[in-house]
Amino acid sequence: MLDEALGKYDTTTVIRKLNLLGQWGLPDLVNTDTDVDGTGDPADPDGGDDPADPDPAALTAGKASPLAENPQAQPSFVLTEDSPDAAGTPTTSGATSRSVAAAEASIPTYLPCSFIVDAHPVRSVNVVEFHNASNSNGKWTYGESADTDLEGGIDYAGDDKGWSAHGSGHIGNSKGATVYRSYSGGSKANNYGTSTFKYTDGHYQGYGQGKWCQDTTISPGSYVKVPGSWYGGVGSNTADGSEFIGCAKSPQSGHRNEYPKGSGFTRDKNSSAKIGAAVNLGPIKVGARSGYSKNVVLHWDVVRGHGIWLCGTNYGPIDAGVIHAQNQP
Amino acid sequence: MRQLIHNRLAAVLVLTLCIFFGACDSKDGAGAGRGTGPVSFDSKDGGEQWAFVRAAKGQQVVFGALGVTNHGDEAATLTSAILTGPDDVVADEGARLATVLVRPVAAGADYVGAAVWPFKRYAEGAAPLEGYKLAPHATAELLYIVNVKEQGHWFWPRSEVRYTSGGKRYHDSTSTGFLVCPPGLDRSCDPPD
């Protein structure tokens, strides 16, 4: 409806939202179609085109995402001057508006893209948070059949400003090698144990005009950093979150086991807590979760003093994701 | 024909013993596996971990890292608890489970992971497990007391508890176990290969 007074189309009853991919979404008030993602599956309104969770396979291989099997059904709304969100758009006349709309509508939704590998950097990843008290000899081992779930990163805008954690890649260990770090002779430890992983850094280069790379939910110009394989090595760091909290104070004091001299505890297979900032991708830090399996061991052997406590923050050491240690008085 | 009669008699005898001693388990009774009854170990099953202690021949040791909780609304009666080896074979050649005690624990109480027994004041207030009434929503620490008959590496990867509740028998087991090693702090305490 043309608003004669304002000289432009009346859009006051139409609220459109610009999504992360620069698309205009349908107005919620009038949209009764449950297939809001345009995938043709009304039972899965979130499936297929969630820009915050694109298919990792599409990122690593640069191929079609199985979540975008019906690209023609993707919504394709163009920005017009009368849109309530188009604050900076020049407003002239309805005719101009229509011509702009027509021009933008001619831009195809998809375009062919190539995934360009920029580098294969090796990055240090926190695979475990480990605490040892000076009364015990402590050791963590990462190696054969160890598994780690690592997050990657993506920058949809390609401007190096909008990086976000992206997906989760499962990195198995087929090298048959083992690395470990031990703390003996009264050495304490409150740190993250690290190993290194090879990544693939790259970007999607588009050819021609279009909003997304063909059959994907990736916009051309997006940059990604994808975990690839375990590279080996061992190290540690004392980044935030690995500080000593011990077992003497609440809540850990309510979840502790006593281990006197001559005793100890070994965790051979369990699941550790997700480490919030496991790897620094440069623009952002993303997480990792390492599963303890054969040869991925946490070990405390109490050999001096009055023994130690082992504890967790919400559970005892038997179930805690991160086990803390402290000498007993 | 004589063989057939013998077989039938044997089957009847087995069934009778089974019923008499309560060793025949239905799906809702003992042997039904973890999680079917109201009492369970506080540790998750699936992960492999163990407490260990070094001990000389003739010593007693305790494994007390595990608690059990009655999640039901009526008391459960604990009947037995054992340490088991791989494939549920009890490995007690050189070390034998002497008894299992139950120690009521208040919220926030320490557990003894593993130690030479007796240890501190853990025996105080502890009662034999057999016949122990675990109140609804109560938690208790199980103290597995082991006699070390021969010096060596003795390893039980799993722990098990059996109990009755509401007239039915259940059991629960978990993959947290116990390892006994010879004395000597200069040697690592690891399970036998």
Task: Summarize the helices and strands and which ones pair or pack.
The complex is a heterodimer of chains A (329) and B (193).
Chain A: E1 2-3, E2 8-9, H1 56-61, H2 94-105, E3 110-111, E4 113-119, E5 122-132, E6 136-143, E7 147-155, E8 163-171, E9 178-183, E10 189-206, E11 212-213, E12 223-237, E13 256-259, E14 263-271, E15 275-280, E16 285-292, E17 298-302, E18 308-311, E19 324-327
Parallel strand pairs in A: 3-11
Antiparallel strand pairs in A: 1-2, 4-10, 5-10, 6-9, 6-17, 7-8, 7-12, 7-16, 10-12, 13-18, 14-16, 14-17, 15-16, 18-19
Chain B: H1 2-21, E1 39-41, E2 48-54, E3 60-63, E4 67-70, E5 76-84, E6 95-104, E7 111-112, E8 114-117, E9 127-128, E10 132-134, E11 139-148, E12 154-156, E13 158-165, E14 168-174, E15 176-181
Parallel strand pairs in B: 2-15
Antiparallel strand pairs in B: 1-4, 3-8, 3-11, 4-11, 5-10, 5-13, 6-9, 6-11, 12-15, 13-14
Keywords (chain B): Signal
Organism (chain B): Nocardioides ginsengisoli
Signal peptide (chain B): 1-23
What does this structure look like?
The complex is a heterodimer of chains A (329) and B (193). Chain A has 329 residues and is mostly beta strands. Chain A has helices at 56-61, 94-105, and strands at residues 2-3, 8-9, 110-111, 113-119, 122-132, 136-143, 147-155, 163-171, 178-183, 189-206, 212-213, 223-237, 256-259, 263-271, 275-280, 285-292, 298-302, 308-311, 324-327. Chain A has a domain at 115-327. Chain A is built from two helices and 19 strands. In chain A, the strands form four sheets. In chain A, strands 4, 5, 6, 7, 8, 9, 10, 12, 14, 15, 16 and 17 form a twelve-stranded antiparallel beta sheet that branches. In chain A, strands 13-18-19 form a three-stranded antiparallel beta sheet, with no helix packed on it. In chain B, 10% of the residues lie in helices and 42% in strands. In chain B, the strands form three sheets. In chain B, strands 1, 3, 4, 6, 8, 9 and 11 form a seven-stranded antiparallel beta sheet that branches. Chain B has a four-stranded antiparallel beta sheet with strand order 10-5-13-14, with no helix packed on it. The chains are: A mainly beta (329), B mainly beta (193). The interface between A and B is medium-sized, with 28 and 35 residues.
